[in-house]
Amino acid sequence: MTAKISKWGNSQGLRMPKDIMESLHLQVGDDLNITIIDGKVILEPIKKDILNYDLNELISKIPTNYKASEEFDTTLGKEEW
């Protein structure tokens, strides 16, 4: 498989084919470690720690006196940006 280095603004970029992205379980925005060994560029995905949460445990940590609240405003046209 071949790829071409392209100019993107003041930078250069290399497009990665979709099948490679899928086989490495990569998504747009993921980080890669780049090294050069014997004149070869090595791209390695940086593994993310996958956090496992137990929903029941998280819910048990909500204070018993907690009350959810919402505010609604019908004012239109005076939004602050």
TrEMBL record:
Q: State the Pfam families in the record.
A: MazE_antitoxin (PF04014)
Where's the SpoVT-AbrB domain? 6-51
Q: Where is the signal peptide?
A: none
Domain of life of the native organism: Bacteria
Give the matching InterPro entries.
Antitox_PemI-like, SpoVT-AbrB_dom, SpoVT-AbrB_sf
From the UniProt record, which GO molecular function terms apply? DNA binding; toxin sequestering activity
Q: Which PANTHER family match?
A: ANTITOXIN CHPS-RELATED
In its UniProt entry, what is this protein called?
A: Toxin-antitoxin system, antitoxin component, MazE family
